[in-house]
Design a protein that fits this description.
Largest sheet: 5 strands, mixed
Strand order of the largest sheet: 2-1-10-5-6
Number of helices: 13
Shape: elongated
Helix content: 40-55%
Radius of gyration: 28 Å
Order of helices and strands: HHHHHHHHHHEEHEEHEEHEEEE
Strand content: 5-15%
Distance between the termini: 70 Å
Mean pLDDT: 86
Low-confidence stretches: 181-217
Number of domains: 2
Number of strands: 10
Structural class: alpha+beta
Length: about 425
Amino acid sequence: MRRLLSYTQQALAAPPRNPRMAVVIGRLLAIAFLLCFGTGLYSHFLQEPEPWMRFSTVPAQLYQVTQGIHITAGIACFPLILGKLYTIYPQLFQTPPVKSPLHLLERASIALFVGASLVQITIGLLNTYQWYPWKFGFREVHWALSFVVIGSLAIHIAVKLPMIARFWSRNSEGSRELRGETAVDETPDAAAPVAESAPVGGVTGRIFRWIDGAPEPEPAVSRRGFMTAVGVSTATVVALTAGQSFAALSPFNIFAPRVKGTGPNALPVNRTAKAAQVLDTAVSPDWALTISNGRRTVTLTRAELLALPQTTVELPISCVEGWSQMATWKGVRLRELLNKVGADTSQGLKLTSLEKKGGYRVTQMGPEYAFDSSTLVALEVNGDTLDIDHGYPARMIAPGRPGVLQTKWLSKLEVEA
C-alpha cells in the first residue's frame, strides 16, 4: 500500500501541481472568502443589529455594492476552490498519511475547510434562486458555517505559513527552485523499494506494471494553461451572473435568477402578495397606516397619505440574494410622519406588515434610517401606483437597506422607547 500511494502521488504530478501554484490559487481563494465573510457580517448586522450599532445611509447604493460583492465573490469561489483542489490532489496519497500531530492538524483543517466551503457556497448559490431542498434554516446555517470556514482557513494558513512564505512570490527561494520542475513539494520516499511481485491482473495489475518500469506519461496541462483555465472560468461565472447586481454587466446576465426591468412596475419581485397572503387585506377599503409613539397615535388612510406633501427619490432595491435595481419612488417622508407623534431623532422604529407570517413580517429600523430625508413611506414607483406585489397600499423604502427590510404592505409604525 505504501508503494502504491507513493507512486500514485508521483503519477499525478504535473506542472500546475506544485507548492507555488497552490499558494497562488490559495491566495485568490482566501481573498474571495474574506470578501464574502466581511460583506456577510455587514448584511447580517444590518438585519440583526446590536442595540449600539448605527449604519451609514450614504451612499444610498452601499448595500447594493456590498451584497453584490458578497454574491459575486461567492460564485467566484467555485472555480477557485476546484483549482486549489486540483493543485493539492496528489497530497491525498502521501505516505505515511499522518506524520505528526501538526501534520494531522493540517490535514484536518483542510478537510474541514473544503467540506464546509463546498456546503457554504452551494447553499448560498441555491439561496439566490430561492430554492431550499433542505429542512434546516438557511440563514442560521449559513451564518454558523461562515465562522467554520474562516476558522479552518485561519488554522490552515497558520500551519502552512512557512511554506506560504517560501513560495509567496515568483522570485522567492522556493519558487526559484521549482522553476521548470514538475514535481510536487513532497516527493515519494526514494528509500522505499519497489518489491518484486507476481503478476496481478485487472486495473491493479496495470498500475503495478507501470510502477515496475513503464515510462511516466507526459503531463497534459502546463502551468500557463492551468492558470488560464482558472482565470477564464472565474471571469466567465462572474460576468454571466454579476449583471443582476451591477448595471454595467446587465447585458451578460445569463445565469442569474433576476433580470433588471422585469416584473410589475418594471421591477423584479421576490415575495408576491399571494405568497404573503395579503391579496384581500392589502386592497381592503378599511386599510389605514397606524403611527404610534406611546399613547400618541395617528391613523392615516391611503387618500390622506396622498394628500400630504410628496417627495420623489432615486433609491435601489437591493436584495440579499444579490440582485438589485435602481427605481424612482414617490411618497411621504417618514420623518414627517414621525413628527406627527412627537418622535425623537434618537428613537428607532418597529415596522409591521400585513403579512400573515414570515421572518420579516415585523422588522426594526434604526434612527439613522428613520429620520433620513430619503426614507419614504412609498405610494408610487417608476411613475405608477405601487403594484400589489411591490407593497400596495404603502411600503417602506430607505437608503442602504436590504430589500427584506424595505417592508411591503405596511400596517403599523411604532416608535420604540
